[in-house]
């Protein structure tokens, strides 16, 4: 029979059955406590305290051991629930940030516009410039080169107004194109001299490799030592010595059967002067010759002697007379 505080109260009040009385006496005997059937004594309070302590221990033994396990299980479930919540939030945050990152990259690719870089030279100035792809360009006097800060994946395109010597870095996946005064020069990797000043005939001289030169439907393919003179859509292909292309980079002036009107433009750009030719017939005369870094006066003296003209220098203007 289970001994409980209620049963012990009945026993103390004399309300227990004989069986209940026997169970209580047996419990007291096993607990090293004496039963007191007579009147209370001075030791009864101590005995009562011990009885209640024993009852509390018995109750604790039957009920308390399950509590830690239940409490620990509840805490474990709480921890797991919190972890799942954190994991879910972290996963959602990850995919949200990844989506935003992808969208940002896509927007950047579609909205990014490379900066246009422009390089200019003054009269009498020669300047060397390097492009991001490894190409080297040397600009002659009074020239301008424009190119994007970043070439695209399929084409390297630049714009030229004037004259420049190109040493193009080879890239078979990205051809190199030069647009100048309506002409298009296309290469993969080579070295050549391109002259295309606005309002003047254009020329292309190839030192190395192959170069395609075109305007609208007109096109010509040039190799080493070949040149083309272009006046509008009229192309004239010729052969030239190797030392002609880029000779101006070494302060040389090379004229190959050029009219005095074309030579006058070169003089103006090299020396920073204005040149006037008063006689139209004289302007059409052709000249062939080379000069190594001559002064303005020395050049005019030699040209005047060969082409039979006189000249005057008035400040910043050269006037050529017959």
TrEMBL record:
Alphabetical UniProt keywords: Membrane, Transmembrane, Transmembrane helix
GO terms, molecular function: sigma factor antagonist activity
Highest taxon in the source lineage: Bacteria
Protein FecR C-terminal domain location: 252-320
Domain FecR protein: 118-212
The keyword Plastid appears for this protein: no
Listed transmembrane segments: 76-96
UniProt protein name: FecR family protein
Organism of this sequence: Dyadobacter soli
């Amino acid at each position: 029979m289970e001994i409980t505080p209620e049963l012990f109260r009945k026993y103390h009040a004399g309300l227990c059955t004989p069986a209940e009385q026997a169970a209580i006496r047996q419990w007291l005997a096993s607990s090293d406590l004496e039963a007191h059937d007579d009147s209370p004594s001075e030791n009864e309070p101590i005995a009562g305290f011990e009885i209640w302590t024993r009852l509390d221990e018995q109750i604790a033994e039957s009920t308390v051991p399950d509590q830690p396990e239940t409490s620990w299980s509840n805490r474990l479930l709480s921890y797991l629930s919190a972890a799942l919540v954190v994991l879910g939030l972290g996963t959602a945050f990850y995919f949200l940030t990844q989506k935003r990152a992808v969208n940002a990259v896509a927007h950047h690719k579609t909205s990014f516009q490379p900066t246009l870089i422009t390089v200019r030279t003054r009269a009498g100035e020669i300047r060397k410039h390097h492009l991001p792809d490894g190409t080297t360009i040397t600009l002659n006097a009074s020239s301008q080169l424009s190119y994007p800060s970043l070439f695209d994946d399929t084409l390297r395109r630049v714009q030229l107004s004037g004259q420049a010597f190109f040493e193009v870095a080879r890239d078979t996946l990205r051809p190199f194109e030069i647009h100048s005064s309506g002409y298009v020069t296309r290469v993969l990797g080579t070295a050549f001299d391109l002259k295309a000043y606005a309002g003047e005939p254009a020329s292309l001289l190839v030192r190395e490799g192959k170069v395609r030169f075109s305007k609208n439907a007109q096109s010509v393919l040039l190799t080493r030592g070949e040149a083309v003179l272009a006046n509008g859509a009229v192309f004239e292909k010729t052969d030239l010595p190797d030392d002609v292309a880029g000779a101006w980079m070494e302060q040389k002036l090379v004229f190959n059967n050029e009219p005095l009107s074309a030579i006058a433009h070169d003089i103006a750009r090299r020396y920073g002067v204005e040149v006037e030719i008063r006689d139209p017939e004289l302007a059409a005369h052709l000249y062939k010759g080379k000069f190594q870094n001559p002064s303005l006066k020395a050049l005019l003296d030699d040209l005047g002697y060969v082409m039979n003209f006189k000249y005057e220098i008035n400040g910043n203007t050269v006037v050529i007379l017959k």
